[in-house]
Structure formats: structure tokens, C-alpha cells
Amino acid sequence: MYELARKALRLAEKAGAEEAEIYYAANHSTSVNFRKDALENAKDRFSEGIGIRAIVNGAVGFASTNSAAQIDDAVEVAVSEARIRESDPDWVGLPSNEKYPTVSGIFDKKVEALELEACIEHALTLIEGTKEVPGTLPTSGGFTRAKSKQLILNTNGIEIEEESTAVSGFVDVITVNGQTSTAYDFGISRSLDIDFFALGKNAAELALKSSDGIKIEPQKTDVIFHPFAFSDIIEEALAPSFDADNVQKGRSGLIDKLGEELAVPELSIYDDGLIEAGIETSTSDDEGVPSQRTTLIGKGVLETYLYDSYTAGKSGVMSTGNSSRSSYTSPPAVGLRNVIVDYPQTDVIADTQSGIFVNTIIGAHTANSISGDFSVEARNAFTIKDGALDKPIKSLMISGNAFEILKQITGAGFDVRKVGGIITPSIRVSDMSVIG
Amino acid sequence: MQDIKFYDCRVIEGSSTSIILDNEKIEEISRNFTRGAGVRALCGGSWGYTSVEGEIDLKQGVEAASKLAFSMNASTPKEDVELADVNSPEVKNLPEVRIDPRDISIEEKVDLLKNIETNAKVKGINSTKVMYLESEFKVEYRSSDGIECAYELMNVGFAVSAVASENGVYQAGRESRFGYGYELFKKENVLELARKAGNTAIELLKAKTPKGGEMPVILDQELAGVFAHEAVGHASEADLVLEGDSILENRIGEQIASPLITIIDDPTLHEFGYYPFDAEGAKSKRTEIIKNGVFNSYLHSRETAAKLGGTPGNCRAQGYSMPVVRMSNTFIDNGDARLEEMLEEIKDGMYLIGSRGGQVNTGEGIFQFNAEKGYLIKNGELTELVRDVSLSGKTLEILNHVALVGNDLKMTAGRCGKAGQLVPVSDGSPHLSISKALVGGA
């Protein structure tokens, strides 16, 4: 299919497209998965396909296929869809070829060359880690390595090709005695620099520490969110409001707030497609606009929204390089790159007299992505007493608002983690409402 | 490789169309053609799986999967996996499609969406989005133990959302319907649903966030259906049971719920979770998960059925992903109570309506669901509308605290995302009255 991408671009022009774009993506992943402490299966997946955007008279059509035999048809469909649609006055054009940054750390030859036997070893290491902690058993988990290739071509001269690799490990652990408790841990990276043994061990220790939880009274208190919990809140309750498409359509809680003091002055949040070895790092975004670093919140002030070329054209600004596709089957839309949460770091638990530490949350995706309101169940939560974790809490609901949280942040830990593309330390928020 | 004792292949070919209308503009018309296959091979106690998109060489696929299974088994040998027997299914009684959506022009579909959007834009709504989805696919299944079967299915549906805002407060209303055949748009009063989405958003603007705490609640059909699927259904999936990640492990035959409760999974119903045979070629069939409060059956694949004893038929996959144990159409069966009786009985509490999703920990048996909205119940009457309310608690406690089961079962179509794979499902329930539950609010 890769060889057919250029042909498809010419076909689209011939079929009457004034502008056209071919997005090619291929992915090969190998994963080894376990159930309880035994390896269950190995999976090898090959995926490859192209997505075609065709523009006629300021209207866009899109079609995709993974079958070489259907490329001609898909191109025809994309062009005829564009013809059906009314001209879009907000359409400015596909991006043009520009100077591109150099990014590093996103491709690792060792990952590409990884044999199945080595994948099996890594999966076994995850299991061994959990065995360090008696009284626990893994329930499921696995190791995955992937290699991807992407090619973007358009009629404005863009021709960008990039390869990348990724490895990840995941483990879910349950306690075997007494009151049941569970915990998980995961890691994802561009290279083989994850300590899989530690992942297994951490999850098992956390599950064990969480059992025999106590009930606590409803209260307002300081809550420290572990990077897993905080990144969930950012992704589900806060990030959608930065999306310029949501702003333009009246679906963002940040409309008319540019330049406003949104957060405490110690807090900055960046969207960055360039950081070394980031999971969302690449030369360009998914329509060929050069990647960049964007200050979303600078010292507490909202500086910009996130744009792809369409939303940027509509607002008369420059794209921030945030065009994103979940696969070749979908047209591009605004999406996050690596998001970095920056706040002065301290030994945040030690600095907390009393409060609650929350490792993970469930239900973040039920947040109101416009208002920022959320109500989630906290998992693996502990009381904090005199600067140290004290007792596990059996069941805990936390309600709040993502925008209010930004104004109530009072601390951050040293424990920065890459939770997929979101890079954050533990964050302490004052005056959170919790129900035990 | 003579050590490979079983392999199977699923070839899937299909196409889908989606149209998105956003604030009166066509945001997207896209069409996708796919073809691909998933191949499994079993060696001893290890599975190998390979999936390929595009042009498919099945022989090569079987070899690749076999090699994976063989290597896995060689490096970590373990107890052999046995598979429960299945017979070649008879494919009949597929959902009827009276109007083939492919016979309707794109222009007509766009007009329908525009009409839906106009209706959702009731006074005070400042943003709307309507999505139309249509997909047709053909599944061919073949296994080394001689099963060969195929079917074709076509889905169609829509979703509408409307957003209202006032003084920096945003609230949304959403409705969706999915089914088979374009007649869905005639059968369901889609324009009224659109108005309902709009009105919900407007109403919610004025709604307050209540004080949370423990109280008696009534769940509407949709939220109770989500509970049946998320909290009970997932815990009854035998793969989770075998992982030791289900609170229902070793509970068959035990009274785990109020005797009023019967929960069923039935893929033969022509609801959104319908299939004639599952991803292992096993004929679909109805399963009583809980019968009159007694835990009756897990949901099985061929592997889990052989291991735990049971009947296969609930192994499913999204496209050419590796199949896992899944639900289909899952519901709490009708009782005989009316909503009015429930209100009278409960006196003071909360009526929780609709669902904005939620999550469940099947191992610990705890859950959390967000309702779309709710009403305070005072003295047996519905009073103030409230928003941002959620329900959480322990699955088994809720099942035992069911005081009344309604007689108004209703199914809702959706997609379940277990194991990172989306498959069409439906879930439902009559109204449920629960004597004590934890409601989250401000």
C-alpha cells in the first residue's frame, strides 16, 4: 500500500480534487499477555491503510481503506463526497511544506528487532515482580512492542515520512487473603528503559497496602493526586476545553478566557510535540504541520487554545501543530500532543499535615468536559497523617471541578511520570470534597 | 506443526459511512472500506494470534499464529487448554432490514440530520451535533474442527447532542438510537428524541447539585440497565472469573441478590447486541445469569466453558481482534411494580435518570455510575431536578437492597469497550427501587 500512496494522490487530482492529501499508516505490534501468573497468548498484529482527504470548491470529502484493490474506489468516493457538500467558507487550505524540526528518541532499533522470546521474557519479568510481594496474585497483564510508520503526502508539496517504536507493560494485581483489594501499574516508552520488575512489584505492594481499608467521614480536605489520577482528570475534564474546535462551537469552558488568570501563578501547562522520546513526539502533526511547544497556561494565565490547520484558519491564527488522528480510518481533528504539567516540586506528602493521597480514579470519562465538573471513585487511596501515608481508605468519592482545581493547587511532588502523553508529578489540591 | 491441535480464522469484510452535522454544518462525510482476518492457533496451553489487514493469505496466517503458539508453549509450557464442543450453527432469523440504507442517497440522509438538528435546537440551545452511522459487514468463520459458517449484518443509527449555556455553566443533553435498517428513523420518533435532548440541556442549566450521601433511590431503565451490564454482567464473564478478578467466583447456586432479581444475557434478541453465532462459531443462546436472586451461570467462550463447565456462545471481537468473553443484550427481567408504587414506598430519596457512563472494579465488586440527572423524592413525590449526581457502591449490596422491580423493561443500545475492543451491545431493565445506596453530589 505504501507504494500506492503517491499514485492515490495523483488519482485524486485526476478525479477533480483541487487539493488532496494521503495519510498512510502501518503498524506492527507484538504482545505477550498473561492471565493470573501464566502466559496465555501471543499476538502479532499487522495493520496498514490509507485515508484520503479530497477538497473540491472548499468542501472536504474523506474515505479510507486497507485494501490495495479498493484504493481507486476510495479516492473516487472521497472526491464525490466533497462535491456533494456545500463549500465551507471557513476552509482555508491544506498545510504547505515548511521547515521541519528534528526530533529524537522516538525510534529504537532494539525495539524494532525484538524477537518473540524477548517479549516473553519481559512479560515474565512483570509476573516475577508481583511475586516479590507474598499475599498477592497478578490477574492479568502483558508486554507489547510496536513499530509504526507514517507517510503524509499532499498536493501542496508536503511529503513527510516517519518511523517510531513503543514498548509498554501493564499489570493488574489482586490480594488473595482477607478483604480483597486490587491495584495496577503500567509504563509506556519509546525504548526498552522500563523496569518491568518494578512495575509488577509496585502494583502488588499497592494492592497489599490497600487492603483492610477504613471508612472516613465526608469532609473537605487536601487531596494529593498521583500522576495516574491527575492525568485522568486533565484528559477528561480539562483538556477538551483547550480544543479550539470546542471553543469555536461553544463547547468549551474556556471561551473568552484568553489572557485570564486561570490557575495559581506557580502553575504552567505546556503542549509539546518535540520533547525527547515523548509518546506524542513527532516531526509534524497528523496533517504535516511542524510540531512545536505551546504554552497553554503560563504562570497561571491562559495563553492559547490548541489548533489544527482548519480551526486555525477559521480563527485567523497559526496552527499549533495539534492535528491528530486515531487511525487512518478517521479524518484529522484537534488533539493533544505531550502535555507537561509544571509546578515547583517538593516532597509533597511530607509537607502535608493531614489529607488524602489518591493513586488512581475510576469514572473520569464521565466528567462534564465542558463545565469541568467531575465525580469519581478514588482507588488505592490513603489518609495522610503528619506528612506520611497512614491508613488505606476502603471507598471514596471525590467531586470537584477541573477549573477550580487549577486555582487550588498548593503543591507537587518529585515523582514526575509519563502517563502516555501526559507528563505530570503528583499534584496537591486544597479543599477537595470527599465522601467516604 | 503437529503440536497445533486447533486453529480458526475469521475473515471480515465491510464498509461504513459516517456523517457528522455540527452546528448546522456538515463536519464530516466519511466512508471506510475494510477487509482483514484474525487467525488463532492453540498449542498445549498457549494461544497464538495474528491479524492482518488488506489482502489475506490464510495459510500464511495460520502458520504465523501457529508459530507464536508453539514458541509460547515451548518457553512456558503449562496445562493444556481444552475447548468445549460446538456444532456448526444454523444461521437463520437475522434481523429484518426493510429499508436498505444504501438505497437512500447521502443528500436524503443529510436532510434527515438537518431536521433532527433543527428539532434539537430548542430555545436556549447554543450548540448541537448530530451523527449518523451506517455499517455493513460480512463475517466468515472456519475452524480446524470443521465448523464453517457466515453471516452478513447491517447496522444503522444516530446520536444527537445539544448544549446550553448560561453564566459560564454548560449542560448537555444526548439521545441516540441504533438498530437494523433505515426504517429505524421512522419507527423511533427521532425528531421528538432530538427535542428531548435539547430540553434536557436547558432543564439541567437550572438544576442544582444535591448533597450526597446514603439514601433510598429509584433507578430508571437506562441507569439500571447500565448497572446490570457493568456491575453484574462483567463480573459474570468467565474469563474475568478465571483471572480471579470477579466477585462472583465460586458463587454459582448461591443467593446473591434479592429474589426479585433475574438477569439475562440474550444475543438472539434483535436488539443491538444481536449475533447468530459468536466469534468461535458457537450458536448464540439465552443465558440466565441470575435467576430469582440465585447466581445461575457465567458467560462463556469455548475455553472457559470447558474449564468451568457451561455452554459457549459469548466470545466476541471487534473486527479482527482476538475474541474475548463478552455480553450481548443484557437485562434485568420485568417484575410487577409500577413507578408510582415505588415513589410511595420510598417516601424520601432520589430518582436517578439516564447514564453518562461509569466504571466497575469486578474483583472488588464496586462500581460508580454517573446519572444524567435526577429528582429529589420528597414524601413520595418528585420535586426538584438535580444534576451531577452519581451512584456508587458494592454490587452485591445493591443487588440485595432491591426493594421493588418495575414492569416496564426498556433496552438501550450502546457499545461496550472491554479489552480495548468496542462491540455493539444493548442493556436494559425495568425501573428499580433500592432501599439504600450511596449517591455522590456536591
Question: How do the helices and strands line up, and which of them pair or pack?
Answer:
The complex is a heterodimer of chains A (436) and B (442).
Chain A: H1 5-14, E1 19-35, E2 38-56, E3 59-65, H2 71-84, H3 109-112, H4 116-131, E4 136-154, E5 159-175, E6 182-189, H5 196-209, E7 219-225, H6 227-238, H7 244-248, E8 268-272, E9 293-298, E10 301-302, H8 309-315, E11 323-324, E12 333-334, E13 338-342, E14 354-362, E15 373-385, E16 388-393, E17 396-401, H9 402-408, E18 409-412, E19 417-419, E20 422-424, E21 427-435
Parallel strand pairs in A: 7-14, 13-20
Antiparallel strand pairs in A: 1-2, 1-4, 2-3, 4-5, 5-6, 7-21, 8-9, 8-13, 9-10, 11-12, 14-15, 15-16, 15-17, 17-21, 18-21, 19-20
Helix pairs in contact in A: 1-2, 4-5
Chain B: E1 4-22, E2 25-43, E3 46-53, H1 58-75, H2 106-120, E4 125-143, E5 148-166, E6 169-179, H3 184-187, H4 190-206, E7 213-219, H5 221-233, H6 238-242, E8 263-265, E9 287-291, E10 294-295, H7 302-308, E11 315-316, E12 324-325, E13 329-332, H8 339-346, E14 349-353, E15 358-361, E16 366-370, E17 373-378, E18 381-386, E19 390-394, H9 395-400, E20 402-405, E21 410-416, E22 423-429, E23 432-440
Parallel strand pairs in B: 7-14, 13-22
Antiparallel strand pairs in B: 1-2, 1-4, 2-3, 4-5, 5-6, 7-23, 8-9, 8-13, 9-10, 11-12, 14-17, 15-16, 16-19, 17-18, 19-23, 20-23, 21-22
Helix pairs in contact in B: 2-4
In words, what does this structure look like?
- By secondary structure, chain A is α+β, with helices and mostly antiparallel strands.
- Chain A folds into two domains: 2-207, PmbA/TldD superfamily (PmbA/TldD fold, 2-Layer Sandwich), CATH 3.30.2290; 214-436, no CATH class.
- Helix content of chain A is 20%, strand content 39%.
- Chain A is built from nine helices and 21 strands.
- In chain A, the strands form four sheets. A six-stranded antiparallel beta sheet of chain A has the order 3-2-1-4-5-6.
- The longest helix of chain A is centred in the N-terminal third of the chain and has 16 residues, at 116-131.
- Chain A is globular, with a radius of gyration of 24 Å.
- Chain A starts with a helix and ends with a strand.
- Chain B is globular, with a radius of gyration of 23 Å.
- The longest helix of chain B has 18 residues, at 58-75.
- Chain B has helices at residues 58-75, 106-120, 184-187, 190-206, 221-233, 238-242, 302-308, 339-346, 395-400; strands at 4-22, 25-43, 46-53, 125-143, 148-166, 169-179, 213-219, 263-265, 287-291, 294-295, 315-316, 324-325, 329-332, 349-353, 358-361, 366-370, 373-378, 381-386, 390-394, 402-405, 410-416, 423-429, 432-440.
- Helix content of chain B is 21%, strand content 40%.
- Chain B contains nine helices and 23 strands.
- In chain B, strand 2 and strand 3 (46-53) form a beta hairpin.
- Chain B is of the alpha+beta class.
- In chain B, the strands form four sheets. In chain B, strands 7, 14, 15, 16, 17, 18, 19, 20 and 23 form a nine-stranded mixed beta sheet that branches. In chain B, strands 3-2-1-4-5-6 form a six-stranded antiparallel beta sheet. Chain B has a six-stranded mixed beta sheet with strand order 10-9-8-13-22-21, covered by helices on one side.
- Chain B has two domains: 4-206, PmbA/TldD fold (2-Layer Sandwich), CATH 3.30.2290; 213-440, no CATH class.
- The N and C termini of chain B lie far apart (62 Å).
- At the A-B interface, strand 2, strand 3, helix 2, helix 4 and strand 4 of A face strand 2, strand 3, helix 1, helix 2 and strand 4 of B.
